[in-house]
C-alpha cells in the first residue's frame, strides 16, 4: 500500500506529469533522490504503468466516437480470444473492455466521419469472429473524463 509520501508524489505526478523531477520533488515535499527512489519503486510494483500523452482525437480529425457493446457466441471455447485478437488488429479500435453479464465486450471506435465509421463497421467490425449481437452507442458528449485517482 502507499504511505503518505507515496500518495503526495502520486497526487502531484497525476496533476502534472510533465513536471521536472526537481519541481515534482518540491511539490511532494521530498528530496530529488527520495523522489527518484520512490518513483522507481512505484514503477516496479506496477502502481505506475507509464506516463502518457492524452490525445484529443477530434483535433486530429476523428469527429465520430462510438461504443460498441458486443455479445459473443460463446459456444466455441476460443470465442473471446479470437474476437479480441481480431479487434486488436483494427487501428480505429482505441479501447477494448471485457465484462461479465449479457454484454461480453465493449469496443471504443473512432472515425473521421460517419462514412468512415460505416466503412469500418461493415468491413472491419462485423467480420470479427463469434459476434452474436452488437449494439452501437454514438457518443454525443464527454461530461467527465478524469484519469486521476482521489489520493
Ranges where pLDDT stays below 50 over 5 or more residues in a row are none
Number of helices: 5
Largest sheet: 4 strands, antiparallel
Q: Would you report the number of β strands?
A: 4
Radius of gyration: 20 Å
The helix-strand sequence is HHHEHEEHE
Strand percent estimate? 15-25%
| Helical amount | 25-40%
Q: End-to-end span in angstroms?
A: 12 Å
Strand order, largest beta sheet: 2-3-1-4
Reconstruct the topology from this structure.
Blueprint: H1 4-15, H2 21-28, H3 32-44, E1 64-72, H4 79-88, E2 93-98, E3 105-111, H5 114-125, E4 131-138
Antiparallel strand pairs: 1-3, 1-4, 2-3
How would you briefly describe this protein structure?
This protein is an alpha+beta fold and 151 residues long. The protein has 5 helices and 4 strands.
Structural features, described:
- The protein contains 5 helices and 4 strands, in the order H-H-H-E-H-E-E-H-E.
- The mean pLDDT is 94.
- It has helices at residues 4-15, 21-28, 32-44, 79-88, 114-125, and strands spanning 64-72, 93-98, 105-111, 131-138.
- It is elongated, with a radius of gyration of 20 Å.
- Strand 2 (93-98) and strand 3 form a beta hairpin.
- The chain is an alpha+beta fold.
- It has a 4-stranded antiparallel β-sheet with strand order 2-3-1-4.
- The longest helix is centred in the N-terminal third of the chain and has 13 residues, at 32-44.
- It starts with a helix and ends in a 13-residue tail after the last strand.
- The protein is 36% helix and 20% strand.
Amino acid at each position: 500500500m502507499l504511505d503518505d509520501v507515496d500518495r503526495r508524489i502520486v497526487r502531484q505526478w497525476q496533476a502534472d506529469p510533465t513536471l521536472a523531477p526537481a519541481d515534482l520533488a518540491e511539490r511532494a515535499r521530498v528530496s530529488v533522490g527520495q523522489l527518484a527512489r520512490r518513483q522507481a519503486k512505484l514503477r516496479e510494483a506496477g502502481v505506475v504503468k507509464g506516463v502518457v500523452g492524452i490525445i484529443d482525437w477530434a483535433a486530429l480529425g476523428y469527429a465520430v466516437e462510438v461504443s460498441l457493446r458486443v455479445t459473443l457466441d460463446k459456444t466455441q471455447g476460443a470465442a473471446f480470444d479470437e474476437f479480441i485478437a481480431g479487434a486488436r488488429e483494427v487501428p480505429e479500435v482505441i479501447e477494448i473492455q471485457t465484462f461479465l453479464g449479457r454484454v461480453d465486450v465493449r469496443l471504443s471506435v473512432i472515425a473521421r466521419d460517419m462514412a468512415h465509421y460505416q466503412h469500418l463497421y461493415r468491413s472491419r467490425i462485423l467480420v470479427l469472429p463469434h459476434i452474436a449481437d452488437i449494439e452501437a452507442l454514438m457518443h454525443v458528449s464527454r461530461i467527465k473524463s478524469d484519469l486521476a485517482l482521489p489520493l
